[in-house]
Amino acid sequence: MTAVIEWRAVAPVLLVLIAAVLGILVEAVVPVVHRFFAQVFLTVASIVAAAAFLVANWRKGIGGPVVMGSMMLDGPTYFIWGSLLVFGLAAILVFAERELNGGVSTFAASAATVPGSRAEAEASAARLEHTEVFPLALFALGGMMVFPASADLITMFVALEVFSLPLYLMCGMARRRRLLSQEAALKYFLLGAFSSAFFLFGVALLYGYAGSFELSAIATAVQNPTMGHGILVAGMALVGVGLLFKVSVVPFHNWTPDVYMGAPTPVTGFMAICTKLAAVGATMRVFYVALGGERWSWQPLLAVLVVATMVVGAVWGLTQTDIKRTLAYSSIAHAGFIMTAVVGASAGTVTSPLDSVASVMFYLVVYGLASVGAFAVITLVRTQSGEANAIASWSGLARKSPLLAGIFALFMLSFTGIPLTGGFIGKWAVFAAAWRGGYDWLVIAAVLLSLVAAVFYMRIIVVMFFGEPADGVVVGRASAFTWLPIAVAALGVAVLGVFPGPVLDLATLAGTFIR
Amino acid sequence: MIDQYLYLAVILFVIGAIGVMVRRNALVAFMSVELMLNAANLALVAFAWHHASFDGQVATFFVMVVAAAEVVVGLAIIVSIYKTRRSTSVDNANLLNQ
Predict the structure, then answer these.
(1) In a domain, B96, yes or no
(2) How far apart, in whole angstroms, are the C-alpha atoms of residue A17 and residue A23?
(3) CATH for B81
(4) pLDDT, position A348
């Protein structure tokens, strides 16, 4: 068998990964003074070029299995790749912000030095920067693109690690509060490695069941079993653990609050949306394409987990005092809302063509816009010593900067799902898909719990607009690297609330997975 | 025959999983994760032999390379934590829960 690689079809992924490798080379050969600019330029250029190739390929109708059947280029893949590139670019732009920190990036001067040591002070005084975060982010982005596009489980496992490993490192690279950052990295790493071991053992069992790693072959084996049903169920459960960990579904959500809080805020923003996009995409592909025939055994169990996820996200979110931690619980709650449509597994009809896959993808877009924007805003609210993440210090923000508080309130309203924001259309779409799939009780639970979650979003808005201004907290002066993503996100949330049509059409057009 | 290999793989996997949950030392927990990966490798090779296909054997090489990459990243994180705190106990890493 000769190896055939459709270079053009996979060009978007390759461009991102090649730029990541070139970024490592930049570290080695480009003088320090030019390095930051070179890395930012390489990153932005590669993502834009990848997006251009993606659009050109889409218009030309390139699709189907590529790279000898290890990746599937179907509608959802195109849609998720497009969203990943857009949100990845927006989140990585925030990485490049230097004005806020007095001319250096928000990442550790030298991550290898011990916090509080003389070496660290010297590295800070020398104004060192870790420009390696840009190649790391590109590696992660490349892995995230392969993950939901994989047509076989080994490709999926490798992609899982390719995007996870750089994220573990990026989590530990904060310039300030480095102990928390390192601790977040350790927790994320140990739990992530643990969950991917579960994923891999599940892959081994599914391989044993079907005799092949290909998702389509597993689907065939589910229809015409040659092995015991127990192996299938065990494999399905273990693969599910690995996937749901990345989506942060209860009971595999424990890492989320700690990691979101400890990681540098731009990295949190990157993880919040891009990891979720990749993980939800891959979860749908595995459960619909390979295990669609076993739907009756996974739907009820997943429905229970989804309810638990929404409860934990909404109720625990109420008790938080840290803004990043609150948004972490919010992300858990949203994982639950997204998964309601996944559980529903409804196919579109002629009158309402929005199926589960399309509605989930639309939801991810509006959730992503609000997330990228919200975490970028969080980087701006500061004290002398860095970000002010306690909700108490956000008090009276509207009097210091009405614009910033207004934009943040818009994101909170979109998270809540208030009409005329994108979040409302997103919630309506996923709940409708779940309802049509026959999970009406799940939809009712989801609506009630989104009311509970609304309380903590509203609390933040009330604190910002009606609280007494907190002492010593200012809105930092930032460059366009932070303001551009915020502006685009705010505009997107508002526009999608009023004219959701084009993106909804695009999501519907992207349609369902090819087996 | 396949059953025995599979039982061994499951036993190794469970030992690894218990190790991660019970042991407090980050290094030992990480070693337990590696044991789980190797249990999966054993299952893959056993199934490859059962199905008389090479896919499973090739997959183990991918897993080994991934495991090696994971060691690089993992040890970097654990060593940096150790240098900061003079301890690799996961119980001491509890600043985020306060």
Answers:
(1) no
(2) 10
(3) 1.10.287.3510
(4) 65
Which DSSP string do the residues of A352-421 spell out, in sequence order?
----HHHHHHHHHHHHHHHHHHHHHHHHHEEETTEE--BGGGGTTHHHH-HHHHHHHHHHHHHHHT-TTS
Instruction: Examine residue A135 and say whether the peptide bond preceding it is cis (omega within 30 degrees of 0).
Output: no
Domain membership of residue B25 (yes or no) is yes
* Helix (H) / strand (E) containing A65: strand A64-66
Give chain A's largest Cα–Cα span: 71
Query: Would you call B80 and A212 a contact, using CB atoms and an 8 Å cutoff?
Result: no
> Is B95 inside any structural domain?
no
Beta carbons within 8 Å of A348's beta carbon, 6+ residues apart: A354, A355, A358, A508
Listed residue (A291, A286, A284, A283) closest to A225, CA to CA: A291
Domain count of chain B? 1
Q: What percent of chain A has pLDDT over 90?
A: 77
User: Which chain B residues are Cβ-neighbours of A198 within 8 angstroms?
Assistant: 17, 36
- Cα(A177)–Cα(A77) distance, rounded to whole angstroms? 38
User: Residue A197 — φ and ψ, nearest 5°?
Assistant: -65, -40
CA distance A431 to A442: 9
Boundaries of domain holding B32: 2-89
What is the secondary structure of A230-252 as a DSSP string? Answer: HHHHHHHHHHHHHHHHHHT-TTS
User: Chain B contacts of A208, Cβ < 8 Å?
Assistant: 6, 43, 46-47, 50-51
Q: How far is B43 from chain A (nearest CA, A)?
A: 6
pLDDT tens for A248-286 read: 998 999 999 999 999 999 999 999 999 999 999 999 999
Average pLDDT of chain A?
92
Residue B97 lies inside a defined structural domain of this protein = no
Task: Choose among A385, A382, A409, A411: nearest CA to A398.
Answer: A409
The number of helix segments (H) and strand segments (E) in chain B equals 3, 0
pLDDT digits (tens, 9 = 90+) for A75-87: 999 999 999 999 9
Q: Flag whether residue B19 sits within 8 Å of chain A, measured between CB atoms.
A: no
How many angstroms separate the CA of residue A233 from the nearest CA in chain B?
15
